[in-house]
Amino acid sequence: MIFRHVVGKSTLTEGLTVHRDFESFFESPEPGNKRDITLLFGAGQSTTVTLRKLNNARHHVQIKYETKAHLPLLNWLNDVFEINPITSKDASKNSLYVARSLYHNSADVADTDIFGEVTQIVSNIPFRLNEGQFYYNSELRRQFVKYNWEIEGKAIPELNLKYDFRKNRLQIEVEFGNARTYYQDYIKFMLSYNSRQIDFGMLITPTIEFASTLCEVGKQKALLQGRQSYSGMMHFEKAYRELSYLKDIFKMPIVILGIDISSAASPSPTVKTSHTPST
C-alpha cells in the first residue's frame, strides 16, 4: 500500500495528517486516544512516533513527530525536501499534465490519436496561483472548443442529462466538483454507450495532490465570501479505489485521468495504472 502526502512546512517540523481515504490503511486508535508506531525513513533508520485520532467532528488521524527524540527524522526530512513559497513568476512556468491514468476494458485507448489530443489539451492549460476549479473548468472548455469538440449536448435525447465534451465517439466528463457528484458521470457514460452514441468514456479529475491545492484556494475564497465551510473535491485516487468495487457494473470501456501541475522545465511522464485495481 502506498500513502502519498503533499509536503508542506508542517511536514518538516511536526507531523502529517492522514487523508480520510487512507485511514483504513492504519490501525487507528479510538477518537481522543493515541498509540506509538515505528516510522522507517532514510537508509534503514527508524524512530518511534505518535499515531493519534483527534476527538473532533472529522476524527482526523495524525502522525506526530515534534520532540527532540525525533531530530534525526526531522533533519532527514529537511535534507530531502526544500520548501519554498510559490510566487506568481514561478507559477507562470507551470502547466497541467496527465499524471496518472486508469484503464477499464480500454488498454488500447492510450495509443489512439484522440487520446493524444486530450493529453495535449490538458497540457495547454497554464497553472495559475490562487485560481480554483472555475478557472480550470473554463480553460478546459476553451481548449476543447478550440479542438472542435461538441460541448454540453444531451447524453440521450430523452433526458436532460448533458455530457461535457464529445468527439469521435469518445465522451468526456470533467469532474472537479463534490466527490459524490461523479457517480452521475458514470450514468451519462452508460446511457450514451448503451444508445450506441459513443465507444468509450473518459473521466478527467485532479490528483489528490492537485485537489488539495484547489481545496485550499476554495477555502480561502469561501472565507472571503463569508462562508464558513467548503465542500471538498473529487480526485483520481477516490475514483481508482472505488473502481475496484464498481468495475463489474461497467461493461463499457472507461478511462480515468488524473491531472496535476507540471513544471515546463521538466518532463511530465504519464503513469499508467492497472485497469483492474485492487484495494
Strand elements, count: 11
Radius of gyration, taken over Cα atoms and rounded to an integer in Å: 21 Å
How many structurally independent domains?
2
CATH architecture of the largest domain: 3-Layer(aba) Sandwich
Please write the string of helix (H) and strand (E) elements. EEEEHHEHHEEEHEHHEE
CATH class of the largest domain: Alpha Beta
Q: What does the largest sheet look like?
A: 7 strands, mixed
Number of helices: 7
Share of residues in strands: 15-25%
Order of adjacent strands in the largest pleated sheet: 6-7-8-9-10-5-11
Distance between the termini: 9 Å
Summarize model confidence as the mean pLDDT: 81
Structural class: alpha/beta
Low-confidence stretches: 264-279
Describe the protein in words:
It is elongated and about 65 Å long. The protein is an alpha/beta fold and 279 residues long. The protein has 2 domains: 9-80, no CATH class; 88-273, Restriction Endonuclease. It is 29% helix and 24% strand. The strands form 2 sheets. It has a 7-stranded mixed sheet with strand order 6-7-8-9-10-5-11, with helices on both faces. It has 7 helices and 11 strands.
Write a concise keyword list for the protein shown above.
single chain; 279 residues; alpha/beta; Restriction Endonuclease; 2 domains; seven-stranded mixed sheet; four-stranded antiparallel sheet; elongated; disordered C terminus
Please outline the helices and strands:
Elements: E1 15-18, E2 34-41, E3 45-53, E4 61-64, H1 71-80, H2 88-91, E5 94-104, H3 113-123, H4 133-146, E6 150-151, E7 165-167, E8 170-174, H5 182-194, E9 200-206, H6 208-224, H7 236-246, E10 254-263, E11 271-273
Parallel strand pairs: 5-11, 8-9, 9-10
Antiparallel strand pairs: 1-4, 2-3, 3-4, 5-10, 6-7, 7-8
